[in-house]
Amino acid sequence: MSLIDRQLDKTINKVEVAIDRLKLFEPPDGYWLAYSGGKDSCCIKRLAEMAGVKFEAHYSCTSVDHPDLVRFIKADRTVSFDIPHYTDGSPITMWNLIVKKKMPPTRLVRYCCQELKESAGKGKVTVTGVRWAESVNRAKNQGLINIHGNKKSDRLILNLDNDVSRRELEQCYRTRKTLVNPIVDWEEEDVWEFIKTENIPYCGLYGDITKNYSCTGKKRLGCIGCPVSTKSKQEFVEYPQYKKLYIKAFDRMLLQLVGADWKTGEEVFDWWVNGGNKYIDENQISFEDLA
Ligand code: SF4
Q1: What residue owns the CA closest to ligand 1's atom 4?
Q2: How far is the CA of 150 from the centre of ligand 1 (A)?
């Protein structure tokens, strides 16, 4: 695939299509652009600039993003660095959420996404970097889920992360947000081709862009220890200080729990990374990976 998709009867320029989508759905008060610092975010931000639409790029601080990624985001003064807050004004972090929720985040219960990411941009039309090509569900069920849980139905109500059921314009049934996904049909190579062609700065954790438009470093950037990631064990080897922070949070969590089987934060951590969090719920809804 490439950004210029030559088919038998037509030629599609994916950049022009993405720009047209952004122009078509532009709200009078401008877009909220959900920026994570990842490669897809870099593309949607540049596309919004090329489209000449009104927008504000916002990064919602998770407290568990890679430090290099956070530095990359902070270096871009055009991105608003937002720290989620409780109603009393104190910051929401993964560390205090674990204590408050009295459980680690899991694949089934991703409260951190809800509190750290989804609450941002309420009432605004949000631009995301969601892409079908990132979908786990795609290969398995074409990503179609209806309200009765039957697959391959056209009664779509769920916004599954990067799923093929995602549309260029949609409403998240849970957050009630209107989402615009201008690069929903882009492949990974398209993303890197666009970044290379447009000379867009990107986070160094990705390494170099190869000739066939891939990257030599990390393929995906996300929260360290994310329950959805299959790489969390490896990440904790790379970033042992985050392992310590999780264990400390689990220790504080245990102080809130009566009758728990775990005795220490370390025991919770071992359960968490070694199987306790193994359930894979492909229907879990999240605002994660938006950009
Ligand atoms: S990406 Fe993972 S760790 Fe980060 S907020 Fe969402 S579920 Fe939690």
Answers
A1: 223
A2: 27
Q: Which of 8-22, 43-57, 275-289 has the highest mean pLDDT?
A: 43-57
Percent of the chain clearing pLDDT 90 (strictly above): 67
Q: At what angle do helices 188-197 and 39-51 cross, to 10 degrees?
A: 60
Pocket test for ligand 1, best of 82, 92, 106, 228 (most atoms within 8 A of CB): 228
For residue 127, what pLDDT is reported? 96
Whole-prediction pTM = 0.84
φ, ψ for residue 59, nearest 5 deg: -105, 130
d(CA 197, CA 191): 10
Ligand 1 atom 2: the closest Cα is on which residue?
A: 226
Query: What residues flank ligand 1, with Cβ below 6 Å?
Result: 62, 64, 105, 110, 112-113, 116-117, 222-223, 226-228, 288
The pLDDT of residue 212 is above 60:
yes
Beta strands in 96-164 (DSSP E): 125-127
